[in-house]
Amino acid sequence: MAAVFDRIDPRTEGGALTSTGEARDFFELLKPRVMLLVVVTALGGMATAPGSVHPVLGLAALLAIAVGAGASGCLNMWYDADIDKLMTRTAKRPIPAGRILPSEALAFGLTLSVGSVLVLGLVANLLAAGMLAFTIFFYAVIYSMWLKRWTPQNIVIGGAAGAFPPMIGEAVVTGDFGMHSLVLFAIIFLWTPPHFWALALVKSEDYARAGIPMLPNVAGAAATRRQIMAYSLVMAPVAVLPALMGFGGLVYLVVSVITGLAMIGLAVRVLRTTQGEAASKACYALFAFSILYLFLLFAVLLAENSLGLMWALPKVIG
């Protein structure tokens, strides 16, 4: 049983182990940057949902969703500690760096998982809580323990975990989910492969050293670049759908079109720039802009629907 809880001990061989971790190390286990994106996308689902929720209950629900996202990130770090220590990008994380014991991370992640689901069930409804529980399970078990180490399509399938928050957000408000949050799900789902594969192209040696079958290591850099291009070409028009369906306004239409074209342009640059430092810069540029892209889309939706800034367009779809 101890081998299960302490998957690796990066600090010492034998002897009693005590944690040297501080509060910031436990916070790092929650992947705070990912949590921020989850909060923004869940808020987008809540803001565009038909209906309303009491602000206090909505805030409590959002906090529970954020904690659930952090819990899944913590469990991911616990399970991936053995490969994280082999990769330059992740070697300084709290577990491989020896500041947090794997057993502590596991207990922390499980406690937050159960607590966040229970709180969401109490302040919202069972559907929202069940969807949060499934999202945590999907990311921690299906993606982290199975897909990531088994298939080069790990990011594609596993990307569903990051796409669920808008659906959870709508479920908080309505007790159900419909086309609004499904479209938002599709945007995030299609966004995930070009976002992560751009980084994977640069970090392919890291993934090879850790034995992770990322697409560049299995299918090659050229095929990965073509996949990035293909997903970007599909994602950009899908991201315009909220304006066409009436839950995004004129500002959203302008922002989604301009940033979508920028994403396609950066994908073209990645496709065409294949050698040397210029290729790495192209990949980093796409990776960095993709984060801004998703944040802008959901921030505009949130502002339009929550702050009375909606200049609605004629509904084309739905």
Can you walk through the features of this model?
This protein is mainly α and 318 residues long. The chain has 2 domains: 22-177, Tetracycline Repressor, domain 2, CATH 1.10.357; 179-318, Four Helix Bundle (Hemerythrin (Met), subunit A) (Up-down Bundle), CATH 1.20.120. The chain is built from 16 helices and no strands. The longest helix is centred in the C-terminal third of the chain and has 31 residues, at 276-306. The N and C termini lie far apart (54 Å).
Strand content: under 5%
Q: Describe the main β-sheet briefly.
A: none
Radius of gyration of CA atoms, rounded to a whole number:
20 Å
**CATH 2nd-level architecture of the largest domain:** Orthogonal Bundle
Uncertain residue ranges: 1-16
Average pLDDT rating:
91
Distance between the termini: 54 Å
Pathway: Porphyrin-containing compound metabolism; heme O biosynthesis; heme O from protoheme: step 1/1
Main location: membrane
EC number: 2.5.1.141
Membrane topology: Multi-pass membrane protein
